[in-house]
Amino acid sequence: MTDGAVGKKAAHVLIAADKFKGSLTAVQVAERVTAGLHRIAPETAVEALPVADGGDGTVAAAVAAGFARRDVRVTGPLGAEVTAAYALRDGTAVVEMAEASGLQHLPPGVFAPLTATTYGSGELLRAALDAGARNIVFGVGGSATTDGGAGMLAALGARFLDAEGRPVSAGGGGLRDLATADLSGLDPRLARTGIVLASDVDNPLTGPKGAAAVYGPQKGASPADVTALDAALSHYANVLETAAGAGAAALALAPGAGAAGGIGYGALIGLGAGFRPGIEVMLDVLGFAPALARATLVITGEGSLDEQTLHGKAPAGVASAARARGVEVVAVCGRLALSPESLSGAGIGRAYALTDLEPDPARCMADAGPLLERLAAAVARDLLV
Question: How far is CA 160 from CA 52, 74, 190, 262, 366, in A?
Answer without folding.
Answer: 33, 20, 19, 16, 45
